[in-house]
Amino acid sequence: MFKKLGEEVDTLDTASFGALMGKSYQLLVLLALRRSETIPKLPLIQKLLNMLESDLALHISLADLSKENNLSKATLTRMVKRATGMTPIQYRAQCRIKQAIYYLEIPELSIKEIAYRLGYCSQFYFSEEFKRFTGKTPTEYRRYQKTLPKEK
Fold it and tell me: Can you give the pTM of this predicted structure?
């Protein structure tokens, strides 16, 4: 295929321009198809979990997820629950709390700023949610982290 394209480019015949474009398009399609065969496709559940773990500050509804993946809400919930033991909303909340724990180790970030970075509309709701998951408020958790020995 490359040889044919090379020969037609060398002729510089304006009449063969359309044929050249057609062959170029065929080559691109062929390369794209070969590339898509070599890219491993993620299982649907992994794709769903990746979507739930990304952009934690954005609101993602169950309806949005189910529509984007051509699944019913019940099927989506059942798949995520089977894989994680949690509903999609619970799983996303847990991801937010894990990210909050990471942020709490950065002393320059206030609790309010962490809450907004994670998409909470108020730091008070964030504190309640954090305490429900960890048993401590963010401030208590931050104080507790300071007492632990640092890893080297």
Answer: 0.67
